[in-house]
UniProtKB/TrEMBL annotation:
The keyword ATP-binding does not apply. It comes from the Bacteria. Pfam families: Maf. One of its GO terms (molecular function) is nucleoside triphosphate diphosphatase activity. This is Nucleoside triphosphate pyrophosphatase.
């Protein structure tokens, strides 16, 4: 069976590649902010939002590739009642890092698998990320060195690179932090006979 990743994320593709999976990549055609707006006022929390977005991405690509098993994934970042999105520019990244500095935020990472336009499996996991206090000078230095890559991440960091310098403690699975709860996904793929047991 063809396996498809419904994502343009280099990090997610690298995780699957390093795990030995052979797959195609097809970007989902989903307006994430529009999907989130449909959830406003429903009581949906960050885990729910991440799961719905992962579902919608998997379903979208699965409907266009009915013979494939499609993996959709999404991640939300929340600090208490506030949910963050990818920053639009470096000034937004600076403001976001200032808000997260010295605080513990939660990453909710969801993965969904769809076949024939229907979700057949889903999973969501959390990681708790405690940023150290960050001076304005360090934030400016970090943004200058990390560059536009910070705009690709909801938290303005890639933990696998210089972003690790932002943190005091990390409580959660590494794969969840990178945006794809990989171990549960591999377990599902083994049960489906896609991976060797």
């Amino acid at each position: 069976m063809t396996l498809v990743l419904a994502s343009n994320s280099q990090a997610r593709a690298a995780l699957l590649t390093h795990a030995g999976l052979i797959f195609e990549r097809v970007a989902a055609e989903v307006d994430e902010r529009a999907v989130e707006m449909t959830l406003e006022g429903t009581g949906a929390g960050p885990d729910d939002v991440a799961q719905v977005l992962a579902d919608v991405k998997a379903i979208d690509v699965s409907a266009r590739h009915p013979g494939a098993l499609v993996i959709g994934a999404d991640q939300t970042l929340s600090l208490r009642d506030r949910r963050f999105h990818k920053p639009s520019d470096m000034d937004a990244a600076r403001r976001q890092l200032s808000a997260l500095a010295g605080e513990t935020h939660v990453l909710s990472s969801a993965v969904s698998c769809a076949r024939g336009g229907e979700v057949v499996w889903r999973h969501v996991a959390q990681a708790h990320m405690t940023m150290r206090p960050l001076s304005p000078g360090f934030i400016a230095h970090y943004l200058a060195v990390a560059g536009d890559n910070v705009l690709k991440s909801v938290g303005c960091y890639q933990l696998e690179t210089m972003g690790i310098q932002l943190f005091d403690t990390v409580d959660g699975d590494y794969f969840t932090i990178l945006g794809l709860p990989l171990l549960p996904l591999l377990g599902f793929l083994r049960r489906e006979g896609i991976l060797e047991t």
